[in-house]
């Protein structure tokens, strides 16, 4: 009886508890019972919307065919092809390269995002528009005038930026509610108006300030060799960075490297000058360049290692100095408040200590959550297997109990049938005995009648005819055949009883066969249901994992945007998820006793 109660308690458990979302949220995600996982995701979506992510699915996984808005917005030129405003290439089409896209476009995108994220004017950061650096020229009237002209252009540009900033912060609240794309378009339109204002100034021999964006100008290299008028086109040398320098300009680069220290290598735009070029330049007659009252002879080529001119490896160059010539020193005017500028194709350097620490914390937390989720999934697999095994055992036990009960019932039926058959045979034998006795009595009376002895009426004689003797012979024959007749009747009765017993046994066997077939169908149905539930568990686990990864992506994106807004920088490293732990074997897995899924294992035991 207790075993039967245990079986019924096993069947009381269904697989619905294994797929329960509340159990998954509480045990795997360590969330409280309220709110649920859906409500938590809704809160995260609202939080993401507060940071500017209106559609997490679209923002986290943007279509590949959608190009960046700032990269595709162009300014019309006199030529047929349109050029990007922020391209660093000489001739750029409407689709800019990856290097130019990463150079200045992020300034506008980050500003547009910060403008839409926090509408308070206190946190608005004006965009840092791309501008050419101040030129450093040789002393003289022409150079001084050129320097003053560029200084005036910079002042006008700063005034334009302040005007745009005050205009953006003085807008009504409804104007700030625009989407990031509208803010970006307004920023671009303001920039375009500023560039048009610069174009309206009187043109000099050089191109206007607008088209200086589209050429490889000298802002990429701060050397004064680019800003003078000594770059002779007849003796110009093409460098890897794109600049064309004369022999004197290259010697100026060498002079600047010596002025900065022995550890500095002559370079242009951060790229070291080739070894062969230096050898060819400094070995020419009259190539000595005065530095601080001393001449500059040819450098010692033995002190110039071949590996010192790589882009990523810089070593010192020993250039001996001479005091044969002493012309006037060359001075370089320094622009006020001019910070260090980023060279071409150089990634943005940000303080990544906090970002790396936060990323490590994210990965540690994600790894811990993945291990907890993987443990819960293994518990689900084990609980589901235990549930199906218990169900099969229960079906087998039920079948065996039903079969045993049916067999006992069949035995009782056969026993009752046999008792009835024995009773029928007994009654038949009694009837035969009575018939035998009656035939004997009748034969006795017929004998007395035919012999003429009538003890009852001796005074009345009677005549015995032939008919009476025939009856006597018939009665005597009947008495002689009576035992065989009774035996035949018994045999007929037994044959009928045997046929009835056989039909009953066949019927019982058919019932047992039907019972076995029903058990087989139930077993197959349970196996089919087990397969479907395994596939369902696979689908549920995959869906939950995808949802969990999307939740982590959204969480990281929210943190990334907050970090970029707080530190005024751009994070370029890609977020990589931690790998999922491998599934443990069922015999190694230990399900905690506090888990609800442990009930399935207890039921199996």
UniProtKB/TrEMBL annotation:
Residues 1-16 form the signal peptide. Residues 84-101, 153-163, 179-193 have a biased composition (Low complexity). Residues 400-434, 498-551 form a coiled coil. It comes from the Eukaryota. Keywords: Coiled coil, Signal. Residues 77-101, 135-207, 318-343 are annotated as: Disordered. This is Uncharacterized protein. It comes from Leptosphaeria maculans (strain JN3 / isolate v23.1.3 / race Av1-4-5-6-7-8).
């Amino acid at each position: 009886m207790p075993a039967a109660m245990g079986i019924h308690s096993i069947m009381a458990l269904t697989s619905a508890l294994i797929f329960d979302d509340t159990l998954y949220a509480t045990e795997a995600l360590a969330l409280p019972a309220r709110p649920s996982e859906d409500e938590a995701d809704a809160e995260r979506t609202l939080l993401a919307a507060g940071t500017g992510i209106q559609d997490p699915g679209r923002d986290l996984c943007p279509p590949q065919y959608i190009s960046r808005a700032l990269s595709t917005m162009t300014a019309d030129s006199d030529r047929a092809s349109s050029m990007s405003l922020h391209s660093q290439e000489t001739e750029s089409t409407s689709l800019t390269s990856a290097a130019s896209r990463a150079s200045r476009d992020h300034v506008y995108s980050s500003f547009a995002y910060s403008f839409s994220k926090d509408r308070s004017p206190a946190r608005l950061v004006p965009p840092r528009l791309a501008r050419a650096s101040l030129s450093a020229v040789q002393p003289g009237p022409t150079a001084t005038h050129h320097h003053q002209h560029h200084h005036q252009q910079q002042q006008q540009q700063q005034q334009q930026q302040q005007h745009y900033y005050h205009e953006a912060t003085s807008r009504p609240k409804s104007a700030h509610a625009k989407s990031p794309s509208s803010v970006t378009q307004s920023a671009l339109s303001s920039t375009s108006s500023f560039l048009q204002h610069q174009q309206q100034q009187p043109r000099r021999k050089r191109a206007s300030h607008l088209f200086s964006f589209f050429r490889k100008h000298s802002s990429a290299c701060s050397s004064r060799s680019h800003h003078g008028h000594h770059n002779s086109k007849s003796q110009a040398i093409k460098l890897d960075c794109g600049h064309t320098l004369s022999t004197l300009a290259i010697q100026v680069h060498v002079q600047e490297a010596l002025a900065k220290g022995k550890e500095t290598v002559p370079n242009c735009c951060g790229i070291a000058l080739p070894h062969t070029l230096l050898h060819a330049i400094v070995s020419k007659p009259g190539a000595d360049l005065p530095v601080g009252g001393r001449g500059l002879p040819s450098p010692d080529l033995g002190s110039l290692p071949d590996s010192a001119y790589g882009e990523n490896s810089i070593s010192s160059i020993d250039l001996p100095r001479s005091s044969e010539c002493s012309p006037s020193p060359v001075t370089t005017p320094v622009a006020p408040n001019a910070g260090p500028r980023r060279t071409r194709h150089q990634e943005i350097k940000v303080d990544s200590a906090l970002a790396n620490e936060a990323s490590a914390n994210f990965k540690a937390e994600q790894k811990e959550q993945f291990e907890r989720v993987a443990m819960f999934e293994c518990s689900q697999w084990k609980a589901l297997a235990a549930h199906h095994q218990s169900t099969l055992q229960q079906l087998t036990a039920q079948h065996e109990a039903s079969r045993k009960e049916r067999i006992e019932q069949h035995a009782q039926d056969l026993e009752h049938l046999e008792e009835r058959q024995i009773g029928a045979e007994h009654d038949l034998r009694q009837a035969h005995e009575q018939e035998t006795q009656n035939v004997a009595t009748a034969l006795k009376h017929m004998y007395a009648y035919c012999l003429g002895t009538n003890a009852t009426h001796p005074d009345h004689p009677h005549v015995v005819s032939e008919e009476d003797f025939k009856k006597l012979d018939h009665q005597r024959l009947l008495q002689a055949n009576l035992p065989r007749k009774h035996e035949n009747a018994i045999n007929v009765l037994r044959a009928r009883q045997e046929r009835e017993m056989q039909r009953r046994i066949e019927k019982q066997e058919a019932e047992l066969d039907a019972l076995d077939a029903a058990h087989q169908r139930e077993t197959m149905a349970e196996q089919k249901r087990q397969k479907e539930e395994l596939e369902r568990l696979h689908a549920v686990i995959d869906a939950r994992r995808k949802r969990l990864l999307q939740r982590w992506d959204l969480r990281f994106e929210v943190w990334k945007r907050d970090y970029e807004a707080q530190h005024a920088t751009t994070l370029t490293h890609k977020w990589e998820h931690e790998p999922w732990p491998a599934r443990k074997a069922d015999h190694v897995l230990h399900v905690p006793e506090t888990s609800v899924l442990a009930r399935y294992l207890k039921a199996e035991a």
